[in-house]
């Protein structure tokens, strides 16, 4: 559900990927994880402090 630029605009596509990498790994959350993000040891994705526990973002369900 991300609004990605067209593949013809490579620079905009790279910037969109970099911006997406700086947000919480939970799809519904747009919180920044640049300064206070936590890396999940199970799925290796970065989450904000509200969603960093595996039980909260769904790692325990897999």
Automatic annotation (TrEMBL):
<dbReference type="GO" id="GO:0008270">
    <property type="term" value="F:zinc ion binding"/>
</dbReference>
<keyword id="KW-0863">Zinc-finger</keyword>
<dbReference type="InterPro" id="IPR035896">
    <property type="entry name" value="AN1-like_Znf"/>
</dbReference>
<protein>
    <recommendedName>
        <fullName>AN1-type domain-containing protein</fullName>
    </recommendedName>
</protein>
<keyword id="KW-0862">Zinc</keyword>
<feature type="domain" description="AN1-type">
    <location>
        <begin position="18"/>
        <end position="62"/>
    </location>
</feature>
<dbReference type="Pfam" id="PF01428">
    <property type="entry name" value="zf-AN1"/>
</dbReference>
<keyword id="KW-0479">Metal-binding</keyword>
<dbReference type="InterPro" id="IPR000058">
    <property type="entry name" value="Znf_AN1"/>
</dbReference>
